[in-house]
Design goal:
The structure holds 2 protein chains of 2 kinds. The longest helix of chain A is centred in the N-terminal third of the chain and has 28 residues, at 109-136. Chain A folds into 3 domains: 31-184, 2-Layer Sandwich (Aldehyde Oxidoreductase, domain 4), CATH 3.30.365; 209-280 and 334-423, 2-Layer Sandwich (Aldehyde Oxidoreductase, domain 4), CATH 3.30.365; 291-328 and 427-456 and 492-736, Aldehyde oxidase/xanthine dehydrogenase, molybdopterin binding domain (Aldehyde Oxidoreductase, domain 4, 2-Layer Sandwich), CATH 3.30.365.10. Chain A is 29% helix and 20% strand. By secondary structure, chain A is α+β, with helices and mostly antiparallel strands. Mean pLDDT of chain A is 94; it is low at 1-28 and 740-747. In chain A, the strands form 6 sheets. Chain A has a 7-stranded mixed β-sheet with strand order 9-10-7-17-14-15-16, sandwiched between helices. By secondary structure, chain B is α+β, with helices and mostly antiparallel strands. The model of chain B has no long low-confidence stretch (mean pLDDT 98). Chain B folds into 2 domains: 2-77, Ubiquitin-like (UB roll) (Roll); 86-154, [2Fe-2S]-binding domain (DNA polymerase, domain 1). In chain B, strand 1 and strand 2 (11-17) form a beta hairpin. Chain B is globular, with a radius of gyration of 15 Å. Helix content of chain B is 37%, strand content 16%. The termini of chain B are far apart. In chain B, 60% of the residues are buried. In chain B, strands 2-1-5-3-4 form a 5-stranded mixed β-sheet, with helices on both faces. Classes of the chains: A alpha+beta, B alpha+beta. Chains A and B meet through helix 7, helix 9 and helix 17 of A and helix 1, helix 3, helix 4, helix 5 and helix 6 of B.
Amino acid sequence: MSASRRDFVKMTGALVVGFALAPTLALAQDRPRLPGSLNTNRRLDAWLVIEPNGKVTIFTGKIELGQGIGTALSQIAADELDVALERIDVVHGDTARTPNEGMTAGSLSVEQSGTALRFACAEARAVLVSAAATKLGVPATELKVTDGTVTASAGAGVTYWDLAATADLKREASAKATPKPASERTWVGKSVARRDIPKKFTGGAAYVQDIRLPGMVFGRVVRPPSPGARLTAVDEAGVRRMPGVVAVVRDGSFLAVAAVREEQAIRAREALKQSARWTETASLPPSGDALYRHLMSAPAAAETVAEKASATAATPVKTLDALYTRPYQAHASIGPSCAVAQWKDGALTVWTHSQGVFPLRAELAKALAATDAKQIRCIHAEGAGCYGHNGADDVALDAALVARATGGKPVKLQWMRDDEFAWEPYGSAMVMKLAGGLDAQGNVVTWSHELWSHPHSTRPGASEGVNLLAARYLAKPLDPGLPADVPQPAGGSDRNAIPLYEFGNVKVVKHYVAKAPLRTSALRTLGGYANVFALESFVDELAAAAGADPVEFRLRHTTDPRARAVIEAAARRAGWRPGARGDGARGRGFAFARYKNLACYCATVADVDVDRKTGQVRLTRVIAAVDAGQIVNPDGVVNQIEGGIIQSASWTLKESVRFDRTRVTTRSWAEYPILRFDEVPEVEVVLLDRPTERFLGVGEGSQGPAAAAIANAIAQATGKRLRALPFTPERVKQALGVVSVVHGGER
Amino acid sequence: MASFTLRINGERRTVTVDGDTPLLYVLRNDLELNGPKFGCGLAQCGACSVLIDGKDVRACVTPVSIAAKGSITTIEGLGTVQKLHPLQRAFIEEQACQCGFCGGGMVMAAKALLDRNPSPTNQDVRQALNGHLCRCASHNRIVRAVQRAAKEMRS
């Protein structure tokens, strides 16, 4: 403790007690809180380097996954430094080079990394200008910076690149340099073209799949036929004799192969599959409606997430309840997961499209028990869009295990399509039980949301165990552990379950079933998609019971001016007509949410056309209004919101993972259809820019509202309420009474 | 193994592989072309699409022995960052992707479409690309990009 701090403590008795009881608090107070990820990565030179050759390299722990984060961060850095955008190079997620910012998840990258870079670059600019002032013999206040050249009014100048050697960025950030006001920014707020796109359309090496190293061989895994299976016998020797085979790796029930050529590895995988004998156990839950009864009967304590009692709310005169369900749904990346691994002198290097290179490194160290994390380097390379926690981390361990057997040769291991569908961790099945009461004026006075769910984050680091797939099949298996739910205010299973509306008496309860029969983890929005689907569907059900217009009903219960603004903007753009009714086939639905109740605000209007004979729902148009606070790249925001809407439409109308009591039977796109070009709606996005507000993440803002707007549109069109996702033709026909089906069944 | 001389992107390249090797692995690993991607290996998704004699084919299920009989074009054969083909320029200008993994296949399918129909309707474009999957949901941007390229190629 410094002398001044000691003096300070002497004067304030209360603080002495505080320090004595809480040493960590003292530590925190010694190091003031810095903005964004600067708080946990406090050195300036961890974030940027001024290169003598006229370039600036910025370092971020956040990784590019096609969301355009590299471009957005370069816009922020260029503005604060006063350099041209072309001068900025971006290094993403590398355990040897970049700050540790945990996961790239939760629509937090601009908030966390963008904020850190903004302050780091503003401070670096101040350091550079101060160095220039010394060199030029002119007060810093009389200097201006144009594209990295610092000039005095008299005309003398010096560049950042000349100052690179003397201006000391090897220091702890203070965050005392004030970033530019919105009016002085050049790049932020502009739809700058994404820097990752040109190479993607010209055959450049853009992905981990495109990495080629000298002597590299190709790996494939032979996964068990079912999650509960164990390997009893396999003809390893026979496969070793196959052309090109470099190694067959068997460790317990983990089975894999490496070969000189990729097609040879695929043939060897097939041969291993043919010869392998497994014992299987029926470890999977039932399907159809029984799945949800099974989930609701799992032993999990009821935990109150939120409870609010109103002294003024009247007693309800009308009550309603409804049960909504969401099946297991897949990330279903277009490119199966892939990693490149190489061992050299006991050290491991992994090129990975994991969303968190540092957590992956720690998890790999646990899985490869003999290896110190310091001996592992994880380097990010883009993969196909992942939409959350898919097989990216798992395949990194697969590649590392195979590369131990190739004598130092690097191994590129890519999953096959069936590996990805059968083994990625799915978005959890969920049940949402909603109940609500209206007073005599048709206002909501009681609201209850009870939900049942498996985990929504089993990413590396989420538990004490090792949640890399291969680890649980090794001869000495490693338990994946039981992850805790993501806590509020962001929430995991209960994300967006707490209504933002003024509903009088509110109670939200979750049943978090940590042990999952099928692997589950983060799929875009975690529980937010299903909770918003249920909540916003039920708002419409209550509005109907109150005889109110859905938009007016929402506004009546909304005080947050920013929420009101997006609701009004979406309704206005859509030409919403209060009290309009569907004609039996065509209908229009409304929904709203603020993602996580913390990130962007989004309201959607969906138009559907229901074919009453076939049960086919055609989503023709979706309008969204979004408030993402200060917008860094408007076209990037539109791209995220539009993509989120269409992906959510696909989840909502088509998607559920199929399985029997033993095996996952979704193995290809034939069993997991997604929305195609001829089914994709027109999408229009209205942005409400608020340049003086802080950044709000958008990557997961539109999925929940899109789903609920579709459900509400179908209800408006047909008078029938669909509460079980997805809204397949069979379900629609059943609801319309076209066919009678005893059990809903996932189809 | 046997030798095959491929006519690809205006060059002749000889490879020694088994005749039933899917073209995709020859393109990616022997010829080091990144454009065609492995997505499913089942001809379901279109990420591996290339043109053979102007027709959009799935390289993941096309044996190299068959491919060797025609003239092959991958996205690398259309243009470069310095000298873009109108389709590549249009996809970049429309920012018509998020992850872009499906994008090479989309461009090749669009090339086959525009070669046979220089003035497609939006419906024609959607129909031509319907067998191509995009998970990031950039469909509408992709349709706009194809129309932008069509317009440029007509003028």
